[in-house]
Amino acid sequence: MSSLEPSRIYLDPAEMPTHWYNVAADLPTPPAPPLGPDGEVVKPEQMQAIFPDAIIEQEMSAQRWIEIPEEVRDIYRLWRPSPLVRAHRLEAALGTPAKIFYKYEGVSPAGSHKPNSAVPQAFYNKQAGIKRLTTETGAGQWGSSISFAGQMFGLDVRVYMVNVSYHQKPYRRLMMQTWGAEVFASPSELTQTGRDALAKDANNPGSLGLAISEAVEEAASRADTNYTLGSVLNHVLLHQSIIGLEAKTQFDKIGLYPDVIVGPCGGGSSFGGIAFPFLADKAAGEKRAERLRCVAVEPTSCPTLTQGAYAYDFGDASGFTPLMKMYTLGHDFMPPGIHAGGLRYHGASSLVSQLTHEGLVEPLAVPQLATFDAGVQFARSEGIIPAPESCHAIRAAIDEALAAKASGEPKVILFNLTGHGHFDMTSYDRYFSGQLEDFAYPADAIRASLEHLPKVG
Amino acid sequence: MSSLEPSRIYLDPAEMPTHWYNVAADLPTPPAPPLGPDGEVVKPEQMQAIFPDAIIEQEMSAQRWIEIPEEVRDIYRLWRPSPLVRAHRLEAALGTPAKIFYKYEGVSPAGSHKPNSAVPQAFYNKQAGIKRLTTETGAGQWGSSISFAGQMFGLDVRVYMVNVSYHQKPYRRLMMQTWGAEVFASPSELTQTGRDALAKDANNPGSLGLAISEAVEEAASRADTNYTLGSVLNHVLLHQSIIGLEAKTQFDKIGLYPDVIVGPCGGGSSFGGIAFPFLADKAAGEKRAERLRCVAVEPTSCPTLTQGAYAYDFGDASGFTPLMKMYTLGHDFMPPGIHAGGLRYHGASSLVSQLTHEGLVEPLAVPQLATFDAGVQFARSEGIIPAPESCHAIRAAIDEALAAKASGEPKVILFNLTGHGHFDMTSYDRYFSGQLEDFAYPADAIRASLEHLPKVG
């Protein structure tokens, strides 16, 4: 075997984890609960209009291990366990003594980690007698994942897709339709929110906030319909723990353990998914986890964890959702139109935020051009063309490997390759043709939007 | 385990085959050699202007097993061994007693089986001191595969992409550029052929024949440059045998053997790749292979194996290549613009043609709409959205499974899922919106083009 042999560490489907890991059981201090507009703690029954009981229970649970239903594992097995791959060729290109591994989530039918949560969300809704799911989507990663998951359980799916994306990203829309979903440009005529918006401006380009409102309105107003969300919330991060749990089993097989774990961080589900199961070892006082660092990588254009405030804020731009304690740039912060659409969120998961606040997660902001540099270097050494979100993790992993080269340490680096870039080639086009720019959000603009934080908590 | 559990039969990278299988060693009668325009058998030295010696040797070899160089296996291991998957959910949807398996080749970085041959072609050229590879591409599957493979070995790659596709399919072009290739709209100003074509018509839309001529002209006129071809030729089918060899090992693991093998057939490399290693068992008189049927599926709009003549003909439209004994619709046959671009070829590999002529391969033509019906049914049960070429195999596999249901036989069906459809979503769009048509080529049009067959052999 040559030194360049890539090691793919497979797990047999029979070795797939049977339980998700809930980091809420291992938080150093109790989590701050979500609050209603009245400042009171949100009660489970307030969520029943849009979520099934099983999801609400998971959202509030402090139980460490939660069983993955057999019906969910059946669908996971269409692509899981996902491969853990040693990036031998990238290591050689960098000349680093570090061992770089990536967990590749792009093998799912929808091409990213998102189906890890879409499948159980569809299952629990089916079990609760729900007939239809609604959701919003921007770039389309979550919309396509819930379309796939709904089809697997025979649920109707309605996706409110931001009007601009609906017309600019027809491929993702067609993917959703191939899986049988109905996709509507938002604002639409189907909801009061949509009709009101169209009455004001018939050519409304739409926004994620507007699309959320339409999806929630439909779910709240119909007994047979529920709403689904692809990141941020606790139950989503719970489902994504399958990524890190598998990776731990795979590292066990080769007798290694990571020194650094790197993941892109927007809402926080892919980062939490890979990092939390390793943080469990730290919480349990395991010696092998003592030196472990977990790095959450965000764009400099949307620097939630590195420049935001740790405070109660709304989850959406319009102030419809409960208030959550999290790092936030302010709910009316509008990040520029960078290509890692999945990382353009003003806030971050409460769990990731708390662990960052408590020093267990290390935030890092990287500029856009450097992420594409890293993505192209990765594609040219390892073959896979990564999604722009994943490029953020690759940038940080490469920088860790170069630091290891400088210091001569044979570190073990693990990063989450959250998805492929097959539907993002126009972003690469702009990069190659020099049309991409770096954008660091001015500190005074952040200060201004932070002044609109709600006065609670 | 529930009855719906999908069984992914993984192979460990260490279990990957070390040798390719050459069906030329097991042909019932000697193969008909390629002939020059003078009717004489082509000599190896006549190919040296565009191919390295190792490839020429493989093209003419009758050796049964040919070792896969370690450097090639190193790259194969970036995605191989590919999974063999039991399509439990498709079986349930069909209500068939048949066991349906698919070998999934879409896991390669380029998204299809094509890199299986692109990688060794790049390796042998690198070994021979070649600095640059040329090729033509239409839809872009082969062009992207050779771009990836060239990058793995540090070779420059120039792709002549049919002008219309260059502008209509920017995503595939960008994929090639991400791997560092130069992509030119053909006809181009870089070759005499291209300049002549542009002089006649500055807005020439291009054709695959013209692009081949440009790529061959550049390769023939520069000592440091060679040409590569993605299907049809013997060495390409040799390399693709890795598909069927892995599948055999995977079936051995679960104690099964296929009754029917189905593959799409254009030039013939993906069909030969999956079927030939099983035909080896038949040639060796193995009892388990006695009942085996191998079905090559082509579009009714380009019915080479089912309605063509078995005769000597040119490999290209312009008559530049040697004459090959094969099923052909006539080299000036122009198939309609169906969406399975990879199956629009007037001829078929000499090896597939001979085995069809001798009754060991069973040809089948299927209409376009029925292939998309099958592809959507597959996506909605198994998740993966298949390439239009792969949909042809899925159509035939589903029909075999329905026949097994009618007869009550628990047949084992294997098909080659040659690639994903991430770059073909506009074809699905046309299907969903009712813009796709069936097209059976009229018999008199085929008779007319067969009248232009060269008078040799």
From TrEMBL, chains A, B:
Specify the superkingdom.
Answer: Bacteria
Q: What molecular functions are annotated in GO for this chain?
A: L-serine hydro-lyase (adding indole, L-tryptophan-forming) activity; pyridoxal phosphate binding; tryptophan synthase activity
Q: Which reaction does it catalyse?
A: (1S,2R)-1-C-(indol-3-yl)glycerol 3-phosphate + L-serine = D-glyceraldehyde 3-phosphate + L-tryptophan + H2O
The UniProt entry's sequence similarity note says: Belongs to the TrpB family.
* Name recorded for this polypeptide: Tryptophan synthase beta chain
Xref: SUPFAM superfamilies: Tryptophan synthase beta subunit-like PLP-dependent enzymes
Q: Which organism is it from?
A: Oryzomicrobium terrae
Question: Which metal ions or organic cofactors does this protein require, according to UniProt?
Answer: pyridoxal 5'-phosphate
Pfam families xrefs: PALP
Cited Gene3D superfamilies:
3.40.50.1100
Q: In which pathway does it act?
A: Amino-acid biosynthesis; L-tryptophan biosynthesis; L-tryptophan from chorismate: step 5/5
Outline the subunit composition: Tetramer of two alpha and two beta chains.
Q: Per the UniProt record, which EC number(s) apply here?
A: 4.2.1.20
Purpose: The beta subunit is responsible for the synthesis of L-tryptophan from indole and L-serine.
What does the entry list under GO cellular component? cytoplasm
